[in-house]
Amino acid sequence: MKITMIGTGYVGLVSGACFADFGHTVTCVDKDESKIAAIRGGKMPIYEPGLDALVASNVAAKRLDFTTDLAEGVKGADAIFIAVGTPSRRGDGHADLTYVYAAAKEIAEALDGPAVIVTKSTVPVGTGDEVERIMREARPDLEVAAVSNPEFLREGAAIGDFKRPDRIVVGTDDPRATAVMRQIYRPLYLGEAPLIFTGRRTAELIKYAANAFLATKITFINEIADLCEAVGAEVKDVARGIGLDNRIGSKFLHAGPGYGGSCFPKDTLALIKTGQDFDSPIRIVEAVAQVNDTRKRAMGRKVIKALGGDARGKKVAILGLTFKPNTDDMRDAPSLAIVQALEDSGADICAYDPEGMEAAASLMPRVKMMSDPYDAAEGADVLVLVTEWDIFRALDLKKIAGLMTAPVLVDLRNIYPAAEAAAAGFKLFRVGGVDASSEM
Questions:
Q1: E-strand stretches of 99-219
Q2: Is residue 263 among the annotated active site residues?
Q3: In angstroms, rounded to a whole number, what is the distance separating the alpha carbons of residues 408 and 426?
Q4: What is the pTM of this model?
Q5: Catalytic residue among 18, 28, 228, 263
Q6: CA 9, CA 258: separation in Å to the nearest integer?
Q7: What is the DSSP letter of 32?
């Protein structure tokens, strides 16, 4: 089938490349000429493992192309996917749908025949209704159907998630649109991936509900971690004990500095606003968002505590800046609030991240970016592990301790066992457990 993808951000580029890999002919459209030129030259605008090779192979096979000309891009398309940004709107926290509606209007004006318009962007309930209204108002002469098809991609594992999904959700009651979507996803549901058809509004809500539930699990275990520290219990054992219950499951029960990224903060806030708009507030999700916001800065205070309560003039080395490993995404990363808290306390900060330093540099201009973990640790009074990149899981702790002014480790991801840290000479501070420092 011929597919057009409007937007070459994270969702659009990954989805377009994967659809092409299934054998469809895909044209990705973006107004940013420099971005399109870079992609054509093999430089990806985002870091996602395997994406550059996937794009290159499908471009070479002539199944994938990129353009800034929307009118040319939508010609003859069976389905046109809208995958533009929906950031939180300034002032009120609602999802900003400006780009979605603008894309719908431009698509309608450029269409040369019947088409299925698929919203891939994460949007609040009712957005599809407005997209369809815009389309029909602009082109009453054409047969168009607006469909919701939310994405469920994890940054750092997006290609695998797209090709081996837990489920594919399609929101439409239009028979022709249903047939088109079945054909598009045929390579996947032949592999027994569940293809779920629902009403359009239901599909829109599924995305927000899923992200809010996962954010709730993260925030729940983080609050349990705080209780563990207070009573002298071990959160990793608590998480294992409850995660083995099949009704709960072990995923997203890893204590840490809080969730971040492009989805959970934005989507939980949008769901909260939707509930308020419909006079049906979601108190649990409201509490989740509030707890997560305060937790990140609390992790900065944890580092200050590890420094004896005074960080002024101390050198803090931070390992990991992105909100999670295997991405360069700094949106709502816990490191931002942690760094701010430490800078406010007078600390001097250096950092290392395998992929995020370029994006982080403009967000934390006073932080000195280093060449590797050992370079960051040299002369530091405390080492703070914020993001669990694989490269940080097998550090030579003895070597690092020898480079530091004071071998203090604040492990916000609980990667290193207390005994291993102590053997290397570290005073260890952890999340949701008894600190090695309190046992010494």
A1: 115-119, 144-148, 168-171, 195-198
A2: yes
A3: 5
A4: 0.91
A5: 263
A6: 24
A7: -
